[in-house]
Please model this.
Amino acid sequence: MTRPNRPIYLDNHATTPVDPRVLAAMRPWWEENFANPGSVEHAMGLAAEAAVEEARGHVAALIGAEPSEILFTSGATEANNLAIKGAARFAKGQGTERLRIVTVATEHKCVLESVKDLAAEGFEPVLLPVGPDGLLDPALLDRALAGAPTLLVSVMAVNNEIGVAQDLAAIGEVVKRHGALFHTDAAQAAGRVPIDVQAIRADLVSLSGHKVYGPKGIGALYVRRRPRVRLAPLFSGGGQERGLRSGTLPAPLIVGLGEACRIATLEGALDSGRIAGQRDRFLAALSAAVPGVAVNGTMERRVAGNLSLSFPGGVTAQAIMAAAPEVCVSTGSACSSAEVEPSYVLKALGLGEARARSTLRIGIGRFTSPADVDLAARALAGAWQRAMQSIEATESPDKLAAGRTSRPASAAE
Model:
């Protein structure tokens, strides 16, 4: 097979390419006006501040929030830490008796580690399981919250590995009925599935620029103002972002995030329909060439571009990736890709170690073409087929030798 001039990128859950329109919107704030948005004593600073506030409005519009409810952060990891630790520490400082923090076993590492860190501060972490489809049962959550007063519940909107989309409206209703705060990590959801903070009754929502065709190094946290959610800041400084996230605001990155959110608000539904078609085309081609390839997690509640695929025959995902270097895919979360252990997300679904090790994460995006998915399916199928032939060739001499040693001796021998 002739290889393309550049690799085929199907890892859009790790990061997305920056949309050219986003790059164009950012460029003047690197070159023409580089002023600090906090320098409001002069014209350039005022212009930078105005650009930041316009971007804040675009981010808010994407999730049905008010601009004043958006705080800029360095990314979703910081937003998740600020939401979870900030809410917990503020409440404890006010003398709350609600010390339980409930989350889900398949959450992103930064959520799981944030909740784990709070155990050392006297909080009680509770991790709930998901079903084989990857979804949290709202009835299970209801029973868990009925057991003891809970301060905060954190449930990811769309899983970064298996792409399943939780029923946030149902989860939010349960959480609010029990009087807890509701946080969702929407880094993989924003721009891909509709998010309305009022409809899901969220108090805190984390966003990431580089998951929505914006730049890396910028994210946002929605913090509900009515009724007001109070947070303790993670670090001290000059008091920017309502005193909750000090530090000079990076105007170019914020403008880029705002433009990415503006585009997603206008084009997200069209993107999703087109991307879902590419995903289905890819899966059909791969399934025809690799009988027995299996999708992990529900197909009914799944973000459009995601496929978590387990390959049959004992072929590992690493072997397939090594044999198809022209395709950029991954074995799971980019944050955990250096780990040797199989994905904890796949284990939480009940998958055995062998199947987990044979799993690839496919992330199809806005700029993936039909030719891309056709070439990728062919390349990955060919890699699997070559790996199977290698396994069979290795096994055949062993089987032949075993047959010879077990054969009864003849009279002539």
In short: Residues 20-264 form a domain with the Aspartate Aminotransferase; domain 2 fold (CATH 3.40.640.10). The chain has two domains: 8-15+268-401, 20-264. Residues 106 and 345 are 5 Å apart (CA to CA). The two ends are 51 Å apart (CA to CA).
